[in-house]
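Q: Got a minute? One more chain.
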Amino acid sequence: MAKRNMKAWLDELRSNPKKKAMPVLSFPSVSLMNVTVKELIADSTLQAKGMKMVADATDAAASVSLMDLSVEAECFGATVRFSDSEVPTVTGRLINDMEEAEALAVPAVGSARSGLYIDAIRKATDLIQDRPVFAGIIGPFSLAARLLDVSEIMMDCYDDPDMVHLVLEKVTQFLIEYVKAYKEAGANGVVMAEPVAGLLSPSLEEEFSAPYVKRIVDAVQDDSFLLIYHNCGDNILSMVDSFLSFGAAAYHFGNAINMKDMMERLPSNVVAMGNVDPAGVLRMGTPETVRTATLAVMDECCGYPNFVISSGCDIPPMTPWDNIYAFFKTVDEFYGEKNS
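A: Always. Here it is, folded:
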């Protein structure tokens, strides 16, 4: 299959006055297929089928795979808790000191469930050819935080920065090879979730996240493969210059911030996506509250030509499809009224 010109796709998305929504939407496929989350994450064929069903059910700008941020940590040996209805979570602390950081082996791509997820993308790109297919991955600092423990790494940045950098070096090596494997499998890009970095101070983010994210972007991104950077932390408005230094193709932001505040800070040539609340509104709301919340974001942000409406983060597995359909219907209505 010929490679898609993703730079041209992104340029077209930005320049189109009527933009398709691009939510992070895969886990709710469980209810379309009547399977559990535990079954979905263990079966590449189910994952690909679910992505295809979501693509057929929605007019999204792209298909975005599962944002299961436990996969990479599990490859390193972290313990993962699984559930029938919730996204898997990492438990405990794998690395406690410099000695354990030095002993940490960089796993082979394909270990644990990573091979299964790569296979799912390979199958999905065969099934979905009317739009780009993005794989989901975790960012370097957020992966390191799952190995060192999220609360502990905040202290380690001050108390043992050399250990943190060593772990970051190893996880970055793995992530580069992991993304290259997705690229080889046919993905058109990845959405990288780096939420824990959004909890840092700007200076710590510049030291412990930015250089490693940039290395990954530089290693994998080209005209046929894009990296979209996602951060849903609440400190991100003060990190815009750092984010832009990555050179990511586009940026995706969570609902901890007002999206308009972010759009005001971004150059008009940089595509930004966000940020309807995925849990409080899409998962727990009603079609009416979804419509109200979606219109609120669009009213404030669609005046910026580089804005693309999206969910603020990964849409939870048990989200009612009536709410998801309401989101897409609202987007269509907004642009229909705007252009009528």
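A: The chain has a mean pLDDT of 96.
Q: Perfect, thanks.
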